[in-house]
Amino acid sequence: MGVHLDLSCIDRSHRVGRMGPHPRAIIVKFTSYAHRSLMFRAKRLLKGKKVTVREDLTGQRLRLMKNAISEYGERNVWSIDGVILINVGERFTARVRSDSDLDDVIVKYPPPRQ
């Protein structure tokens, strides 16, 4: 990915979830926010590959993100530092913190129907 990180940049890492037919996810805790930011900025280089880099969201935020993805599509929804963002127009990104925020965005900026 073109990111130079030493082992000293990682505080802890391990697999999560139950063993099954697919490889389990790996969670990584970086020693500093700067190292984490380097990795997240470089994740665009993984486009089209079978590897993804995602934030570890709380259950409530993960559910909210999935609801936003079901309305606006995976390409238009992402998270930064636990905040869920939705691309709702050419030059506008909506910040969603709750179900009511998502409902307001859906009313104000109806999602494209496929």
Layout: helices, strands, pairs:
Elements: E1 10-16, E2 25-30, H1 33-42, H2 59-72, E3 77-80, E4 83-87, E5 93-96, H3 99-108
Antiparallel strand pairs: 1-2, 3-4, 4-5
List keywords for this structure.
114 residues; alpha+beta; two-stranded antiparallel ribbon; 3 helices
Could you explain how this protein is built, in words?
There is one protein chain. This protein is an alpha+beta fold and 114 residues long. 30% of the residues lie in helices and 23% in strands. It has three helices and five strands. The protein starts with 9 loop residues before the first strand and ends in a 6-residue tail after the last helix.
Summarize the structure.
The protein has 114 residues and is of the alpha+beta class. The protein has helices at 33-42, 59-72, 99-108, and strands spanning 10-16, 25-30, 77-80, 83-87, 93-96.
| Strand coverage percent | 15-25%
Distance between the termini: 33 Å
Characterize the overall form: globular
Mean pLDDT: 89
Characterize the largest beta sheet: strand count, sense, and whether it forms a barrel. 3 strands, antiparallel
Give the SSE string: EEHHEEEH
Helix content: 25-40%
Which structural class do the helices and strands define? alpha+beta
**Number of DSSP helical runs:** 3
Rg on CA atoms, Å: 16 Å
Low-pLDDT windows of residues: none
Strand count? 5
State the strand order across the main sheet: 3-4-5
